[in-house]
Amino acid sequence: MKNLKKLLALALAVLFVFSMAACGKSDSLTVEEGKLIMATNASFPPYEYKEGKDIVGIDAEIAGLIADKLGLELEIADIEFGSIIPGVQKGKYDIGMAGMTVTDERKEMVSFSDSYAKGVQVVIVTEDSGITSIDDLEGKKIGVQEATTGDIYASDTPENGGFGEENVTKYANGNLAVEGLKAGKVDCVIIDNEPAKAYVKANEGLKILDTSYTDEDYAIAFNKDNTELQTKVNDALKELIADGSVQKIIDKYISAE
Ligand code: GLN
User: Fold this and answer.
1) Same domain, 102 and 168
2) 184 CA from centroid of ligand 1 (Å)
3) Does 8 map to a domain?
4) CB atoms < 10 A from the CB of 73, how many?
5) Is the CB of 41 under 6 A from ligand 1?
6) CA dist 157 → 103, 188, 209 (Å)
7) Would 27 be classed as within a structural domain?
């Protein structure tokens, strides 16, 4: 009888520990249970931009399909580009998805999914600027979006192919950088090709230089500790790439321009 009681107590204890572990596990897949919180910077058309109150674009739609596959509800947080990686690292957001280029420095801070799109850094100038090549940018005022790869390249020293921090004006987003160019505060803006096309289309008197700067891969960023979420999201992304859904979304936004 005594042994039976002991056994029962032990069984209950084991059950308790297991149920706690199970709870802990389901809690830890995402920041908020049942939700997939994506951090982005919604002034990067056609990847993410505002249409009224909604955030739409290639990244928003791909993330929506991923969330569906995982049975989660997508929530989008619109923050400055430079706050995305720190926010994911701190566990404030589940994923960072913002036309984000995979770089070695970023790989030390977050982990990345497979790449789902390509980017190219290009240079926007005013039609009457007289700037025709990257070489003409020496001594000019360069506008960038803070903390982006365009900023990182341009701010580097001339020996490393940059133009020096002192020649670079850092804006909180692409919209503001283009406003700075239109107002004559900077002579050019270095930014990714697709947003560049969208900005040139939406603003009179601007053009993109023929020479491009660098080729890049876009991917989704995760907290390094959340390998379970990374695997699940990456598997969903792989399926969406394989069945053509990702290409369909890209074509919808990029051919629609
Ligand atoms: N692809 C660039 C980067 O990762 C710019 C991204 C963005 O401005 N949203 O830095």
Assistant:
1) no
2) 23
3) no
4) 14
5) yes
6) 18, 18, 22
7) no
Q: How confident is the model at residue 235 (pLDDT cuts 50, 70, 90)?
A: very high
Separation CA 10–CA 252 (nearest Å): 60
Domain residues for the domain of 142 are: 119-216
DSSP, collapsed to helix, strand or coil, labels residue 210 as coil
The residue whose C-alpha atom lies closest to atom 10 belonging to ligand 1 is: 148
Contact (Cβ atoms closer than 8 angstroms) between residue 112 and residue 221: yes
CB-facing half-sphere around the CA of 110: CA atoms within 13 A: 28
CB-CB neighbours of 179 under 10 Å: 17
167 lines ligand 1 (CB under 6 A): no
Stretch 210-227: mean pLDDT: 92
127 CA → ligand 1 middle, Å: 24
Q: Residue 214: pLDDT band by 50, 70, 90 thresholds?
A: confident
> Are 235 and 173 members of one domain?
no
Please work out whether the CB of residue 39 comes within 6 Å of at least one atom of ligand 1.
no
Longest distance between any two alpha carbons in the chain, whole Å = 95
| Residue 213 Cβ < 6 Å to ligand 1 | no
Residue 142 contacts residue 168 (beta carbons within 8 Å) = yes
Top pLDDT among 256 and 160 is at: 160
Residue 212's pLDDT band (boundaries 50, 70, 90)?
confident
pTM score of the predicted model: 0.87
Structural tokens at position 244:
């053509």
